[in-house]
Each structure stands twice: as structure tokens, then as C-alpha cells.
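Marked as duplicate of an earlier ticket. Keeping the data here for the record.
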Amino acid sequence: MQASGSGSDLPADRKIILAIAQGDKAFVENLLTRGMTADKLLISASGVPFSPLQAACITGQETVTELLIASKADVNYQDQDGRTPVYLASMQGHHQVVDLLVEARANVNLVTNSGTSALYIAAQANHYKAVKSLISAKADVNHAIKNGATPLYIASQKGHHRVVELLLKQDVNVDCQINEGATPLYSAVQNGHLKVARLLLQAQADVNLQANTGATPLSIASYFDRREIMTLLIKAQAEVDLQLSTGESPLYLASQNGHRQTMQLLIGAMADVNLGTTMGETPIYAASFNPGLETVSQLIQAGADVNCHTKSGESPLFVASLRGHRQIVDCLIKANADVNFRNRKGDSPLYIASQNGHNDIVKLLIKSKAEVNQQTCLGASPMYIACQNGHQRVVASLIKAQADVDAPRASGESPLLIASCNGHHQVIDLLIKAQADINQQDNLGGSPLYIASQKGFHQVVAALLKAQADVDIQQINGGSPIYIASQLGRHAVFSLLLKAQASVNLQTDTGLSPLFIASQNGYHELVDSLIDAQADVNVKDSEGCTPIYIASQNGHYGVVLSLVRAHADVEARTVTGETPLLIASVNGHHRVAALLEQTIQTQYESPFLESETEKAKHQLTHQDRAALSESESMPSELELSLLLQSTLTKAGFVKARAALQAAVADALQGILRSRRDSFPGIYIVGSYSEGWGNSLTKADGRTDAESDIDVMKLFQGRLYHIRGSCQCCDRKEKELVDCKDGHIRIGGFATNPAKASSGTPLRPAVDEVDACRVCCYPPIAPLLTHRISSSNISPSVLNTLQGELSKSPCHVVHAAPPRQAGKQLRVSTTFLEKLLLRGLSTLQGQLFVTLKYLVKKVICRKDGYNFEGLKAYHAKTITFRMLEETPAEEWRPQNFVSLIRRSLQMLLDSIGQNCTVDNVDGRIMEHFFLCNAGLYLKGLGPSHSGAMTQTIQSATNVLRDVIEKLPQILLKFQRTLRPVNESGVFYFHPFQILPELRLQSIQTENPELEYHEIYDVVGWSLLQLSQQRISESPDSRQTLMQMIDRLPDCARTAREALRAMICLKFDDRDGAQKVLSACRRHNVSRGITWSAENLAIEATEEDVWQHLLSVDSAWKFCFRFDQRPELPFLPKVIAEYFPFDVDSYTQNAVFYVNFDALLQSLRLLLTPDDVSVRHWFQEVSWSESADIQELAVCAAFCDDSNLVQIFVEKLQRQPVLNRLQQELRIKLFGVGI
């Protein structure tokens, strides 16, 4: 029954409510006499409506309750949450009021919107007498709320033993289970309620009933160490070996947590001490993981198998050695644990103890006859792993035990080599004293001296040279220690090697000498030293390039000058006929070119040679001379590097803002997950989440028109298991799939991995990718041993990348290589890519942004080279390769152009190597992460060899041209960059760019809205305002107003605009003006203020959330409605622009509302003299981010023709309504179109 109201001369609702609460029967009786109905709807101070009877019941006023019942008040009236008078009285424990209502035939079994009954709420609150009254009135004792909880369950959970005892006397289901499978007994045990547990057991509760996880009351008691309750359960015949779905037994849980007395109870009840989990972990394994010696001893005495092992082969001794628990290791050894048992990877207890530096355990295992030379599946010995990690004391113990100091891994690295690689000079001293082979090489020819020289560890190099290491030892490719030191600019190491008489003219298999590589990289001090050491200044590589040629190519003036003074041949030609002068001229190095020209002229001063001089001076073609002429106006490479890097920095392309971009992406992901009912399988990925490349003009949070927001939906269905990599214990052979070249072989799927929606100036495009889980990653290329040993990616990043393999969900997407459509699924490495990109330094990130620009805006654009086969992912892959191959000291701003050129050359070389007659699929490079997986030219189907070769050749021609014209192209790029403003504002309006736009249902139980619920409340309110029926019902207006009132202050502008529109819809102009007046000085947040001084560590998801919740951040919205909500109660000049159809061309039915612009338009309509609104016109005219609604409102209401002209010019770049175009033209020029 709906409550109603009457009586125009009655006092205010609040006064009536107060009288009822105080039990003023005479006052209420007087109101009833004057015409107030017993069911008048009263509105509280908080805006909540309820009936007089409800007010009397919740405050326990018996006499008023009797009066209202006698006046025919509806005893079954339900408020907006479904609460009845008997529910409210039961909630507060007013049992006398309950009795009155029952006597008046109130329905005691009516439930609230959430399914809660009066009996449930009384049981929950421990209102014994109310429970008793309700039971007497035939309340349903077994009614369950939405999560399955009954009155007995909630009373048991809360420990209300008297209520439980009362309920058990009824026909109650003692074993009722909630949705998660827990019973009243389970809940009582979990919360330690001994009396309740005893009552339930006396009522024959099923002691072995399992929850969905497989947990029983006994297992939960074991976990929480409820010993008294455990005694009751065991006496009640609880099965002591019932396991969780993951295999944990009660004894396992007690052992895991060190609950010794609980363990003794279980062992006394004949619990199986060797019962393992699904992973094979037994109680003694779990106990060995923790430091409790007594727990392990107790299990051994009970007959635990000390040599049991998990599915991955780990024994209790192994895990104790891993964790450093010496006493437990000693105890297990005395119990005859196998000290040499290895896990599936071949790791022994001695190996894992050596890896972690537990020297006391190492010595104990050695004393117990552990095999000191036992190797893992990859060939690593305890000595090797101890040397790798620099555990000096462990190395000494192993040497003392006669461990082989030269035992190599399968890839050939010796302990001495790996110690040299990591700079552990004290370990190296020990190995040298132990007669380790100082020149032992790995499979690629790497030696300790070479790797130490490469890493720049001069102390290690000095020690190795002192021990008579071969100073000229070469790798398979011919690289020597002094060569790699020259390549990387390791000055201290270089000096040591030179002093040790290293040969300065040894060449690699491609002809590169130390002098050549030092000249290439511009290390003029090393060049001078090599020249002094009689290095051959005219040595040529396999392409005929000399040191002076390569230095001229890269613009290293100082190096060229030194080589000229050393009488290098300035006219030496490459195999293609190029001279140093030519290459310097083409690349714009005019200082170098001038030096070379002067040198040539000096060489030909003799009249006899003058004709030859003229001939040499005119070797340049017409095109070469044109390039030289143009280069004279170009900045030098150093100047261009610093200019471009500085401009990128001013445009916000720095690590701190990239970190902020990543943080807002994580916040957006959190909002999206919350709106999807906490669905964890949805991820924001791609450039928006990676931090770099979301925009190519300015890093201010806004997405480029040609970019998008990528959303990956990871379905929780089938889990694929990769043959050869999977270590899952519960999979079957038929569930295994083959993985080759980064793809799993399984048919029947679509080939397009993404479902794209178009973007607009108001909202970026969204790409949705569906993905399926894979149990584990296949081998990851940059984490393979041979790659790690030569990688320039920091060890900490590589370790984090290794950890990500188990942290992030491996998955496959619906994509396949050419000619394999529908037959394969591609393994995605998106989480690994995101980790690397988020870790880029400022300069590395700027390199990626530049490469992405070159691919998207220069190579692929129709107004560029119009070659569409290359994509941004190729640029990303080259960036990763540059991270791996470029030493840290080369990442300098002055090298920026050189780094870009090297990246493009790397791409060109990769494509060129794949330009073969048998390449019909367009494969052009290797995947960075996936072994043997290829990357292809995009958008090309399989074709015959001739056509594909021609296409690939076209790609190489384009890249050569880009490299040749790189300075001019980079200057053009520099001119497209836009600086961030002084405040550094970073735009983030989550409800404008939200990928999922459909409205979700609104929870009414909690009056406090979560941030993600703002979107649904605002969208629902807009729809309600567009409905005609709302204006016909005061109750509907009240309900809508109450919903809008729930909006928090972080959505204040939207809230006040909606309130004002409600007033206008009900012809309450004064009310609307009051709303607008109350928020007159309020300002919205345009974005996150992020100055140049902010650090990357300050950019966290928590900081973004603090911003969103502390300011008015929710005022820009995009909604997906079936049709445009019409708001006819607004003036036509406003109603036509709010909401705005974002993309009427594609009929996506997406509508945009800027509530700040809407609020300002209402001010202009209702308070036209408000000066603050006039100031707003100026702000919009200055704003670079003004949107169509702000411009439309300003253009429609502004009287300043100069400002209107600005608005018109800005609107010309926006999708504008025809009517607005017409109006503006009339306003400016007095004529229509």
C-alpha cells in the first residue's frame, strides 16, 4: 500500500516525526483529528520518506503505535527499501511493539529489497524477546537473504547463543548453507563461538559438511587454532582427513601455522601425517617452510615422511634450505632426509642454499655428504650459482669441500665468468687462488676478461690481468677485450688493457677494429690513445669503411680531427664508392665536411696535382651538392639532438608524466572492473596504459585522434596447457596444446583479435580484445641465459620481468600469422611489454615516441611515404631491442639523433635480412619476447615470392630515404610538438573516456555511493528527467531528488545541475535560482596539476584516486542511450546542445554532457547579470581544451563580437550542429547561410 498525505494546515514533517519519537500521543491524536491520515508520508531531515507508524515502531513508542493502528494505519507498509513497521521494531528490539503489530495481523514474513526478514534482523542484533515474539507469530525460521544466510546462520556467526538455542527448538534447518557453502556450525567455529558450536552439535549439525572451497568446521578450527572447539568436533566424529578443494587437510593447515597443540589433537585422532595437497605439499613440507623447529620434530615423531616431495619435486629439506632454517635442516638430516634429492629443475638443497647465501646450511649439507658438484638441468652447480650471486663465504666453503671451480653451465659459462659478469671481485680472488681456469670460454667464446671489460668492472679486469689472463682472447665473432672496451667507452678498463699490451689491431669477423668502433661512437680520448699505440688508422671493415669514414658519417668532429692529424686517408672509398666527405655532407655535418675539404685542398697544394685536386673537389653529384647546401642551414647533430630532446621534454614526454599516464590508466581499469561487478579479468592495455605514445604531440593525458584505448577481456573459461612448459598437476594429456613460434595450434577461431569502435574529438576510440588463459608463458627470449649475459637491460628490470611471468596471466588472442587464419591463437606478451615500457627512462621513452611518430606519421601516412605495412608495434619492438643492445652510458641527450638513426638502421637491417625469395608471408623481424616468433608486414595477405620481395624491397627503400632525410624529418616533428602549460595540467575525466558505457543497476542499500556508481546515478537521472511521467508524480520527483542527493561532492557540479533541472521541470524557477546561487563560487577540476618538479614515484594509482575523490572531478560524461534523452523543459537554445550526439555519422548512440557548461548555461538563463559567468566567456576563449558544448553556450549567449569570432573559429574544428552554424552566421554578419 502506498502512503499518502493530506491536510494543508498541518505542521512540518520534522515536527511530527519529533512528536512521534517522543511518544506525544496527544499531539498525534490532535493531528489525526485535524485531518492527517495515519499513512501520511513523512520526510525526514535526511530526505528519507517513511510512514508515521514506521516512525513510532523504530523509536519503540507503544502508545503511539496503538493509536495509529486504531486509526487504520497500514501495518504492512513498506518504504523505498522494503522495510515494514515490524521489521523496524525488530531491528531495534522493541518486542512490545512487535507484539502490537502481530496482534494487528502484520505480516511478519515480508522482506526488504535485499531479502532480509524481520526475524533475520532481530537474530542478527541479538534481540532475544523480539525473536521469540516473531517465532510465536509463525515467522519463517528458514528464510534466507540473497547470500543464503538464515536467522540461524547469522545468529551463529555473531555468537548469540540464546537466540541460537531458541531457533534450534523450532523446525529449523541446522545445516543450511550460504551461497559460499558455509553452515552455521562452520561460521560459529570460524568466529570462535564455543557455546554456539556446542548447541549446534547437540542439535545433530553435520560436522563434515564442506563449504565450496572444501573447508569443514574442523579445517577452519585447525586454521584458527580453536582447540576447545576442535575437541568437540573430534568427539562428534569429525573426519580428520577431509581436504579443501586444493588439498589442504586440517593437519596441513595447523602445521602451516605452527599450531602445535592443535596438531597433537589431530595426530591423536589418527590424522594422516603424509596427506598432501593437489600440489603434493604435505604437513611436514608446510612446517619446514616456516621457522618452527618443534612443529617439524612433532611431525617426524608422528611418522611423517621426510623425503616426500611436491609435484615440482621440492622436498621438506629443499624448502628449509631455501628459507634458511638451519635447525630444521639439521633435524631433517638426522631423520635421514635425502640431501641430494633434486626438484624437477634439477635444483638440490645444496644448490638452493648456495643460491641464497645460507652458508651455515651449506656447511651442514656438505658435512652430511651432499654432492658438491651436482648440476641443475641447465648445468648450473652450487659453485656457479654462489659465484653468480656473490656469496663469498659460500664459495669459500665449497672450495674447501673440493667443489669443481671450473664446472660450466650448459651454455658454457664457468663460475669465474659469471662472477666476472657481475663484478664480484672478492669471489674472483677466491677462484683465482683455487686455480680456476682464467681463460675458460663459453659457447660463444666469451671469457672472464671479455665480459668484465664489457661490463666496465676495472677491479675485476685488474685481478684477471694480474693472474695472467690472455689479454687478446677473442670471442667467436672476433671481438677482443680491448674491442668491447672501445665500443662501450670503458676508459678505466681500456687503460688497463692497453697497459697490458693488448693488440690494438685485432678485428672482428666483419672487420671492425678497436679504433673503428671507438671512432664510430665518438670516443675521441680512446681514439687518441689507440693512435698513440700505433693502431692502423686506415683499417677497413667488410664494407670498406674506415675509421675516418664512420666518424664522418656520425659527425664526430674531434675524432675526425685526430684521425686527420694521424694521416688517415681522407679519400678512402667504401665498396659502394662513398667518401668521408660525401657521407658527412649528406648527413649535414658541415663542420666535418669543411675540415675534410680543407684537408684535401692541403694535400693537393702542388700545381702538379691541381687538376687532381679539382677532380676530388667535384666528386659530389648535383644531388650531393644540393644536400650540402641544405645542410649548411641545418643544425649540427649535437644541436638537433639537444633541440629535439628539449622540445619533447617541454611537451611533457618525461618519465614522471609517463608514470602519471600509467597511474590514471590503472585508476580507469579499477573503475571499469568495479562497474563490471568486480570482474578481475578486464584490463586497460596498449599505449594508454603503457605510459608512452598515447599522444605524439603533447603528454597531457589526452589521446590522439588516431590512437585508441585498448581493453582486454580475459575470459575465465578454458585454460590452455602448453606441452613442454606446463607444470600443472591436474591437467590431462588431451588438454595439452602445442606452442610453436609464439602460437598455439588450435582451430576454429576468428583471426581478428580486436573489436574496434570509432573515436571522436570528444571520446577516443576503443579496441576490445578477447583473450583466453594459458597456464604459463612459453620461454621468454630476453630471459634466456645467452641473452641475459649480453643484455644492457638492468638486472633489476630483468628480475622484475622474470617475476611478471608468474604474476601476470599469460593469455592468447584470436590472431594468427598469414595463411594460418582460424588455425592458431597468438600468445600475447602485453603485460611484459607494459612492464618494460613503464620502466623506460625519459630519453628511452622519447626515443619510442619519436619512432612511433616516424612509423605512423611519416612512413604510413598518405601524405608521407604511404607505406602501410609498418605499424607502431614494430617501433615498440625496435625500442626493446635498443634497450637490450645499448649500454647505459650511451643514453645521453647529446646522442639522441644517433640513437634514432641506429634504431631505424636496426629496423632496416632486420627487414633487409628477410628480403628473400622464399618469404611469401611478409615476415620482417623477430618477436622480442617469443622465441622464433615472427613479426610481419601488416595488412598484407600471402602472395607469390616476387610480389612479396618487391613489397619488402619497397619497405627498405622507404627506410633508407627516411634515414637519409632524418634531420629534416626530425625538425618537422619538433615543430609539431606542443608544450604543456605552466600548471602542467594532466587531463583525466574517467566518465568521458569510459570504455564501457551501458548503465548498470544502482545499489540502494548503501547510501554512500562508490565513485564508479556516480556514472550510473547521473545517467539514470538524465533518463528520468527526459520522461514525461515524472512530472505527473510528486513521489517520482522525490525519489529522483533523493537519488541525486546521494551524489558526493566530487560530482558536485553534475549534482547541482541535475537539481536545478528538476526544479525547472516542475516549474520551480526560484528553486533553480537558489541551487545556482549556492554553488556560484564553485569551480570544477580541469585535471591533475602536475608540474615539472613532480617525480615519477609520486605518480601512483592511490594519488590519482585521492585527486578524483577530493575535487570536483566527475563533470564530463559520455553515455550510450538507445535514443537521445530530450529535455523539453529547458529553453531550446540549451536543450539542443545537451546532451550532444557525439557521433551522429556512425549512429553509435553516444551522448556527451559537460555539466559545467550546462550549469553555466542555466546561470546565463536564470541569472544573466552574474558577473562570474561573463568571466567564464574569457576562460573558454583562452582554453585550448574547450569542447563543443562550452563553445556552443558561449557563442549562443556572448555579446562580445570579438569573443564570438574566437568561438566560431574554434567551432570550425569541431562537429557542429547546422542550426548553430546558422545562428552564429546571423549573429556575426546579420545574414543566414
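See parent ticket for discussion. The radius of gyration is 39 Å.
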